Amino acid sequence: MMTPYKIFFNNRITTNSVVVSYNASTLSNEEIFNGRIKLQLSTANGRFLKSGNVALRAIETTMMGIDTNYRLVAVTFTKPSQATILSIPDYDSFNKYVFDHGMTHGVLMVMDKNKKRIGVKIIEV
Questions:
Q1: Which residues contact 125 (CB under 8 A, 6 or more apart)?
Q2: For the chain, how big is the Rg over CA atoms in Å?
Q3: In terms of CB atoms within 10 Å, which of 36, 54, 83, 93 comes out highest?
Q4: DSSP H helical ranges for the chain
């Protein structure tokens, strides 16, 4: 049986660091995974932060860390306070990452004009 889940990302940018926290939970809000990434601005790879790959890698880690019966259906990002430092991935980037990294087993799949795409809502708040 497939269990749908969602991931919520929160980030904080200070003068010295970027902190990305994320929490995966079932649709009934049962926590199943959480993580935190902290990068010092003085040593962080700026292209990595701006590419949205911080979030994509965190999602991949979540998928690999939980049971294969779970399917990601929604990702919510808090809008970064400084987009020049940290960016979040859009749907197309996320869709490409999922296919390029063989992660289709961990997401809900849908047909879109006779082409398979991921059925994950990407929300920015």
A1: 76, 77, 78, 79
A2: 15
A3: 54
A4: 46-51, 53-65, 91-100
**Burial grade of 82 (CB within 10 A; 0-12, 13-18, 19 or more):** exposed
Phi-psi region of 113 (alpha: psi -120 to 50; beta: other; left: phi over 0): left
pLDDT, average across residues 32-59: 95
Among 19, 120, 28, residue whose Cα is nearest residue 76: 120
- Residue whose structure tokens are 């082409």: 115
pLDDT tens, position by position, 75-106: 999 988 898 999 999 999 999 999 999 999 89
The 10s digit of each residue's pLDDT in 19-34 is: 999 999 999 999 999 9
Paired strand residues for 38:
19
